[in-house]
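COURSE: Structural Biology Practicum
ASSIGNMENT: Worksheet 4, Part C
STUDENT ID: 0417
INSTRUCTIONS: Below are two proteins. For each, the amino acid sequence is given first, followed by its structure token string. Answer the questions at the end about the second protein only.

PROTEIN I
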Amino acid sequence: MKDAGGVEPTWGFSTTPLVLNNKVIVQGGGTALVIAYDKLTGEILWKSMEGDAGYAATIPMTIDGDLKILVYQGKGLSCLNMNDGKELWTVPWLTKYGVNATTPIINNNMVFHTSGYKTGCEAIRVTGSGYSVLWKSNVMEAQTF
């Protein structure tokens, strides 16, 4: 990932790679926040966004019949187009130390995400054109160790 412009986060590269169809998708950080490799050749298929890598697994989500991926990166939750990596939207989610490490939970068109360090949790509703915040709370937070 470093060869592609990635920058190792504080606690190392620790996101779970997403293997889907012909791609292996990882968070690289730096100028290659998200990278899709061909799973058979290792060739870079696309790079997307810049910024700090997070620590959560990238997960697939079907939105309005189209397969997208959710990336819980260092500064928020981003939705990308699976085929070309185009960023569709990002929910800002700033945490102490840039740690977004818990994997978001999907239920139909809703996504729940949470982080530690007194950040709390949030539920959003997603569509093909964006997202809306359903609620946000500091009553609960999750942090991985």
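PROTEIN II
(use this one for the questions)
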Amino acid sequence: MLILVKYNLEREENQHYVQIAKFLDSHGIRVPKIYFHDATEGLIWIEDLGERDLYSYRHESWLVRRVFYESAIDQIRKLHSLPESVCAEMKEHLPAEFNAALYRWEQKYFFDNCLGRYFRIDESKRKELAVLPRLREIPKDLAGLPRVLVHRDFQSQNIIMRNGQAHLIDFQGMRPGLAEYDLASLLYDPYVDLTGPERAELITYYREQQVKQGITIDGDFDSRLRLCAMQRLMQALGAYGFLGLVKGHKHFLKYVPVAMESLCSTVRQIEGLQKLEALLGKLISQ
């Protein structure tokens, strides 16, 4: 089955979708196959992978879901393990890499659109929290770490399950960043309620597979994953506030409570963010 896609020529990232899809396919990463592309008209004949995404299996038993999650992790690990020389050939087709400015933008997006628009926290309180020394250090800390290619939006609705195997979609935001950011996007996905033990099993699986490939997992892995989870949840909550209240897509607002719970429990484990944790806890208990 094929799907005919007509994309908006004015959106820069849409113009690079085909090149990214072919790049991923050439490196054994499962994505929809491209059969025809008319760049002038913005038309693509693309493989139809079906509608059964990872999200649609959220009510299945963990025995079923774990296999699907492991398949998804196997695919994203392939992306993360591509050598820098290979990644360089895609540079012209990718958006700006994850740098300190982008991490700071994610934080601001959260403060403006979640705390400001959704919870109506006054500007002076938001500014007081936004300048917490630890919060300002985190973007620089993460930006100073070695980068790999990341999906950027690696969550359950962007993973199609076909014949029990995970396929990646909506990868046009792919860019250099941290592997832990993709992993955090999957494990702290507000759309799916993973339990603590389920999340721990998947982290163990990821670590074991990395070691099998000769990739060392150092003692800072858990810390990096927490920081990336904080950033990702802030980005998601900012998006829910913006899409729900500015763009009128109200259905996004129902994911705010679970994302806030995850953010609060994550922030609780990061030194120097006690004031932010206190506010999040207060908002959750209202």
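ANSWER KEY EXCERPT:
Q1: The two ends are 49 Å apart (CA to CA).
Q2: The CA atoms of residues 51 and 89 lie 32 Å apart.
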